[in-house]
Write a structure and sequence with these properties.
With 388 residues, the chain is α/β, with parallel strands linked by helices. The chain is built from twelve helices and twelve strands. The chain has a seven-stranded mixed sheet with strand order 2-8-7-6-5-3-4, with helices on both faces. A three-stranded antiparallel sheet has the order 9-10-12. Helix 7 packs across helix 12. The longest helix is centred in the C-terminal third of the chain and has 39 residues. The model has no long low-confidence stretch (mean pLDDT 95). It binds pyridoxal-5'-phosphate (PLP). The site of pyridoxal-5'-phosphate has 15 residues, from helix 3.
Length: 388
């Protein structure tokens, strides 16, 4: 079988062999439950705390500000619900953007069901939130603002430091979901006045099922998981030592290789856009070309509205793996139009015609040519099917 070409790194990026090697060390019986008092337990505790220090250093944070979790979804739920419940005495109003990942959006909708109020900020046609809209949405009872940093579907990167400054000025807790942007932009919570920040490992060539939350010292948060009081009582459950080690190693590799990887991804992304627009003049880019992640492009194709799912399946038959919208949402498999594309002004048919291509450090230039040749074949097949 010919090698498959993976262009869906925003859904999940392939595990870096160096991360796997690091994780394997901690899968040995030597490492016990970090809460146990014997030698194996102590080794487990040392491993977790060493990772916490390294992860904190990577973020420019204090080790006490890092809480390890099982995923981006868990971190985002803990951030939204934890902050909302811990600050209920101050107010019940929450502000999020209308292009959040489903795990923020649905956590917020759930909070509305239990008595909180929410404002959903609009975005412009590039997917950018206007800081003035944030300012006007803030009320005296606003307790939390959550705005995604790099969008997972269209790649738009928000002016996060500006939002941080506004929230800090009003004394409001500011959370950002940085799952897609961490390691691909130079984001640091302290530089952008971020109080809470979500990251996960599998978007940065780490393992699935590992994530973390930066929680600025002094921020009030109510735990969601009650148990043995792990992670300073914020997130009970025996620590996933290998997952934590994998996340930490993945963060370090991103930092060590940032100066090579990011220019490479930017070059690849630009080359992909230019080649697609040249070969298929009916193609267009959804989202911003100026304020964007280095690795995500979302294309629409005039005349092929509604056809993304068929294009994806034809590409898949030819060994090319891409995505319609976000793979992390059941909307993609159910072919429901994406709320992100709707928010930037696409109608449901146009939204069902969008293909997301997301690059990673293991892609090579020829992957782009293979994608374009496969797209050309796919368009021909769609034509012949519609003429039958
Ligand atoms: C922006 C963003 N936030 C959160 C998540 C959820 O992370 P996880 O898959 O680790 O639960 C994802 C993707 O999966 C994402 O792209």
């Amino acid at each position: 079988m010919p090698a498959r070409i993976y262009l869906d790194n925003a859904a999940s990026s392939p595990l870096d062999p160096r991360v796997r090697e690091e994780m394997l060390k901690y899968m040995s019986p030597e490492y016990g439950n970090p809460s146990s008092l014997h030698r194996s337990g102590r080794l487990g505790r040392e491993a977790v705390e060493a990772c916490r220090e390294r992860a904190a250093k990577n973020m420019g944070a204090d080790p006490s500000e890092i809480v390890f979790t099982s995923s981006g979804t868990e971190s985002n739920n803990l951030a939204l619900k934890g902050i909302a419940f811990a600050n209920r005495d101050r107010g019940s109003h929450i502000i999020i953007s209308s292009i959040e990942h489903d795990c923020v959006l649905n956590a917020c909708r759930w909070l509305e069901k239990v008595g909180f109020e929410a404002t959903y900020l609009p975005v412009d046609s590039q997917g950018l939130v206007d800081p003035d809209d944030l300012k006007s949405a803030i009320r005296s009872d606003t307790i939390l603002v959550s705005i995604i940093h790099g969008n997972n579907e269209i790649g738009t990167v928000q002016p996060i430091a500006e939002f941080g400054r506004i929230c800090r000025g009003h004394g409001i807790c500011f959370h950002t979901d940085a799952c897609q942007s961490y390691g691909k932009t130079p984001i640091r919570p302290s530089d952008s006045m971020i109080d809470i920040m979500t990251i996960n490992a599998h978007k940065i060539h780490g393992p699935k099922g590992a994530g973390a939350l930066f929680i600025r010292k002094g921020a009030r948060i109510e735990p969601l998981l009650h148990g043995g009081g792990h992670e300073k009582g914020i997130r009970s459950s025996t620590e996933n030592i290998a997952g934590i080690a994998g996340l930490t190693k993945a963060m370090e590799l991103c930092a060590a290789e940032f100066d090579n990887t990011i220019p490479f991804l930017i070059r690849m992304r630009e080359s992909l856009i230019l080649k697609v627009l040249d070969r298929f003049p009916f193609a267009y880019v959804n989202g911003s070309r100026a304020f964007c992640l280095p690795n995500i492009v979302n294309f629409g194709f005039h005349g092929y509205e509604g056809e993304a799912m068929r294009l994806l399946l034809l590409l898949d038959e030819m060994g090319i793996e891409v995505s319609t919208g976000s793979a992390c949402s059941s909307n993609a498999s159910e072919n429901k139009p994406s709320h992100v594309l709707a928010a930037i002004g696409l109608n449901p048919i146009q939204a069902r015609g969008a293909l997301r291509i997301s690059l990673g450090r293991f892609n090579i230039e020829s992957d782009i040519d293979s994608f374009i040749n496969a797209m050309s074949e796919a368009f021909k097949k769609l034509h012949s099917l519609s003429n039958e």
